[in-house]
Amino acid sequence: MAEKQQMVGEVYYPTPEVITQAHIKNYEAVYAEAQADLAAFWGKIAAANFEWFKPWETVLDESNAPFYKWFTGAKVNIVHNALDRHQRTATRNKAALIFEGEAGDTRTYTYQQLHYEVSKFASILRSMGVKKGDRVTIYMGRIPELMIAMLACAKVGAMHSVVYGGFSTEALHGRIEDSQSRLVITCDGAWLRGEIVPLKNITDEAVNRSPVVENVIVVKRTGQDVHMEHGRDHWYHDLMALDIANPNASTEVMDAEDPLFILYTSGTTGRPKAILHTHGGYMVGTATTLKWVFDIKPEDVWWCAADPGWITGHSYIVYAPLLLGATSFMYEGAPTHPYPDRWWQLIAKYRVTILYTAPTAIRGLMRFGEAWPEKHDLSSLRLLGSVGEPINPEAWKWYYRVIGKERCPIMDTWWQTETGAFMITPMPCVPLKPGSGTRPFPGVEVDVVDEDGNSVKANEEGFLVIKNPWPSMLRTILGDPDRYVQQYWSRYSEQGWYLPGDSARKDEDGYIWIIGRIDDVIKVSGYRLGTAEIESALVSHPAVAEAAAIGIPDELRGNIIKGFVILRQGYEPSDKLSHELRDHVGHEMGPIAKPSTVDFVTSLPKTRSGKIMRRVLRAQVLGQDVGDTSTLEE
Ligand code: WT7
pTM value? Predict the structure, then answer.
């Protein structure tokens, strides 16, 4: 059994045992190597760890910055590296995915079996006319077929656009329309806390508003009756039983810079943006970060408890573990179903060695007390991880003590949909400070700066910036390259720095402490939502003339949403209407976007140009000084 970590002050030092085992034993040395020659650093990793159909001419092409290109000239497919190449080695017989459903049903796919399913489904997609460059929307629960569908799209060169199963009609509709997906893959329903989330019904509502959709493939999961539209809707199991479902389907040869997927995320203004990632750089970035940060070994059982519908799941449930030939565990349901020890029971049952989850989940489970984890043998764990929002030291220490038994280092990984992979993160050999993501990953240069780009003093708040490109970076916003430049590269265009949209502090040891978003993004339970989307859902109700949404700090969920509305003539404020408006947002956007309160107001603070000043609303709600209001209309 491993020793406990050494703690000095508030710094947690890794044990010699952890360092000896780790892939990376000396962070400083590897960081310095990357700084010395970024292209050589990534080129070496890319050549040593992946199979390329054709090698690259240039590792990093900066000629059209900020439209950076990586591994230009190379031919590759991420699925070849995630599945196909493993068929030639002992990895073919290893578990790629161990799945447990909420009801306790289990399934295991070896690399061979997963390859078989993905290949068959890829040939079904081809038979439906899906080809290189097409977009396919996937809207499913957390089940193996979600992974199979994503990988099958990538195999044929189509971009998947996964919409999180917790989103609802309008969110799904908007993403189908924006991506112009002619095919949607869904399930009849998803299990959540013993109940069925009616994904097919929601898909029907969304698709009925989207004439672009020609085909819908439906995986049977929950088994209740669903409407199947003749000529449009097809059962997955019927298609997979056809002779044309070919287990030897070929893998499309792609350019390294060809799109792999789009994933919608919320930004400062307007509709969600389709963040675009590519086959080559994303492959190199995700696999390398997972290997080094979570120190993946052949014997590990890796559990990333996120949903594949978010970037965390794309990178660290679907792609990176398969690229490394690792074994992943996936659980369908809620952590508290049927009891608050479900996760701890699963760790014991499958001897999970690494758990990666979000602070909100830890805080939620912490509330049920230590007796629940105490009931289970958690001794298989050797590393823990956190992602999605700053982790408060109290939750960090509970996670560390009660779950990790003071011997599992916690990797607090800061990154974004846009970055594709971890950017600021410890590795097992790095001393930890609870609440800090510690230091940048090798090859990533970060700073905390003021409006003019000057580094701020130690421990002062400023804007987080990333000073150089990295392989798994987003390449653009699909269909809106101007917005890509505007959103991420315009604030510090002279210096050529990337602006993530977070504020942060850097301490005297160079450790980064993330504070929060500087824009109109609200992080609710780690989920990223835009005020604009919530407001447009509110305004789509007939009673609402104008709306504003803000995030207010909350102990459990990080933030909660408060809505403010101005009613149309003829409508009167009432508790009933307030409830109705909250439910309306829930129906259109999904339960996670439902405001905790909706208040009625007669005016909203606006700038003279008509922009809602959410900062002023937030300050009013929190009873804080409203700050500079010189641009306020009245
Ligand atoms: C935003 C990105 C990428 C994984 C899931 C979120 C916040 C993310 C941390 C962390 C403090 C964090 C930031 C970031 N965030 N990880 N470890 N510590 N904040 O991806 O939905 O694109 O959200 O999540 O504010 O900008 P995302």
Answer: 0.95
